[in-house]
Amino acid sequence: MIDSQISGITFTANPINKDTSEMVIEAGYGLGEAIVSGQITPDDYILKKSLNLGYNL
Fold first, then answer.
1. Could you tell me which of 8, 28, 48, 52 has the fewest CB atoms within 10 Å of its CB?
2. pTM of the predicted model, to two decimals?
C-alpha cells in the first residue's frame, strides 16, 4: 500500500438511502484504511448522476 496523504472511497449508489441516482465520495487525510475502519470521520460529497446529452441512449 502507498503511504498516501489523502484518500477517498466512492460509492456508486448512496449507501444511506440506497438512491442509485446519487454517488457518494468520502475523503480524508491518510490511508483509505482509516476511512473504512472508522478511525477518522471523512468529508462526504454527494453527487447526482444526471447526464443530459440532448438525446436518448
1. 52
2. 0.77
Distances 3 to 20, 25, 46 between C-alpha atoms, Å: 32, 20, 26
User: Measured between alpha carbons, how far is 10 from 35 in angstroms, rounded to an integer?
Assistant: 11
pLDDT in tens, 4-53: 899 999 999 999 999 999 999 999 999 999 999 999 999 999 999 887 66
Report d(CA 31, CA 57) in Å as an integer. Answer: 38
32: left (phi over 0), alpha (psi -120 to 50) or beta: alpha
